[in-house]
Amino acid sequence: MPDLDETDRRLLRWLQRDSTMSTQALAEKAGLSASPAWRRVKRLTEDGVIRRQVALVDPARAGLHAMAYLQVSLLEHTEDSLARFDRFVQTEDQIVECAAITGTSDYHLKVVAPDPEGLEHFIMRRMLALGLVRGTVTNFVLRQTKYTTALPL
């Protein structure tokens, strides 16, 4: 992993705010000329520091009014079970985040749906139907008080 200097961090902070900014505008914000800014961003991308640039969509405005965090415990911890669950996670668009965790559960999922019934359908008919899950704990999100993808650089 490359060492990030303060100029790299400045560029990354601005890109996290608005990745659609022109190279010239980004360079001005970071105190560079356009060519060095472009070269640095290109290097950060090639080095994998910048994974990709995406649009952040407002879930409610996209018709996804229900969100929940699920703690999932698997029946077995065999290589096959873990691989099958990981494949399931990768193919389900309703799962927007997944982390293998320590503690009493194996995974922590963030799931979105149009409504609470959609979340129930996902849990009961999609996830539990796999036959891999011992149990779940579901926490419905009432109100999101902070959401950011920006890392503190």
Question: Care to describe what's here?
Answer:
There is one protein chain. By secondary structure, the chain is α+β, with helices and mostly antiparallel strands. The chain has 2 domains: 7-46, Arc Repressor Mutant, subunit A, CATH 1.10.10.10; 66-140, Alpha-Beta Plaits (2-Layer Sandwich). Helix content is 38%, strand content 20%. The protein has 5 helices and 4 strands. It has helices at 6-17, 23-30, 34-46, 79-91, 116-127; strands at residues 66-74, 95-100, 107-113, 133-140. Strands 2-3-1-4 form a 4-stranded antiparallel sheet. The mean pLDDT is 96.
- Total number of helices: 5
pLDDT averaged residue by residue: 96
Question: What is the count of distinct domains?
Answer: 2
Number of strands: 4
Strand order of the largest sheet: 2-3-1-4
Helix content: 25-40%
Termini separation: 15 Å
Q: What structural category arises from helix and sheet content?
A: alpha+beta
Output the CATH class name of the largest domain.
Alpha Beta
Share in β-strands: 15-25%
Order of helices and strands: HHHEHEEHE
Overall 3D geometry? elongated
C-alpha-based Rg, rounded: 20 Å
Low-confidence stretches: none
Query: Under CATH, the topology of the largest domain is which?
Result: Alpha-Beta Plaits
**Main sheet summary:** 4 strands, antiparallel
CATH architecture of the largest domain: 2-Layer Sandwich
**Which homologous superfamily in CATH is the superfamily of the largest domain?**
Lrp/AsnC effector binding domain/regulation of amino acid metabolism (RAM) domain
